């Protein structure tokens, strides 16, 4: 299969069947902890990088296979090897998936394009959105996520606040904590106010994978993570 992968067992989603909507490492960020390696060229250009009809044809074949009938898939997840919102026809894909299956759909995104209402509108049909937010100021945002020119953290936060008001499903916000970059406890005293504005259903603290992150990217101490979790309150868990 070219565009469908898994199903994979995931801590956050259970058994999840993944769909890639963009070619390998097509992204508007270049996160220092990215498991896929460096982003060769960050882009903000949205287009139908992979044809929706090709994805649907592959998904349809898989759903009708004997293998699929023995699987209890919890989610179909729109994620893959880059930023899924860069595919400009994601709305069509969501509609077509719903015609094929009643399995809930999850969107895993870096949230950087939620500033635009038409992009937020295009994904309202999913059941769960898992956006990431690693910083609340531009200096830290640049240090950890290395965004394409033109992206700014205030717009992303506003986009997430608007999304919360417009989207009826669940939002699990993920924060990747990198030692020495965004693991300062006083930073999270501010972060918690931003999270209160976004009002996600859950907050997931994650840490970089040592073997795939860039050299020099370190995992914070477990005790620090626990303290951050305490600051962020009941919705927060370390995953
Ligand atoms: S947003 Fe995701 S795919 Fe893009 S660089 Fe960051 S971790 Fe990698």
Topology:
Blueprint lengths: L3 E7 L3 E7 L31 H12 L2 H4 L5 E5 L10 H11 L4 E5 L7 H6 L5 E4 L6 H8 L7 H14 L3 E7 L8 H14 L3 E5 L15 H11 L3 E3 L1
Parallel strand pairs: 2-3, 3-4, 4-5, 5-6, 6-7, 7-8
Antiparallel strand pairs: 1-2
The protein binds iron/sulfur cluster.
Iron/sulfur cluster (SF4) binds next to loops.
Cofactor: [4Fe-4S] cluster
Protein name: Radical SAM protein
GO molecular function, one term: metal ion binding
Please give a structural write-up:
The protein is α/β, with parallel strands linked by helices. It has a single domain (4-173), classed as Aldolase class I (TIM Barrel), CATH 3.20.20.70. The protein contains eight helices and eight strands. It has an eight-stranded mixed sheet with strand order 1-2-3-4-5-6-7-8.
Q: Which keywords apply here?
A:
239 residues, alpha/beta, TIM Barrel, eight-stranded mixed β-sheet, 8 strands, 33% helix, binds iron/sulfur cluster, 4Fe-4S, 4 iron, 4 sulfur cluster binding
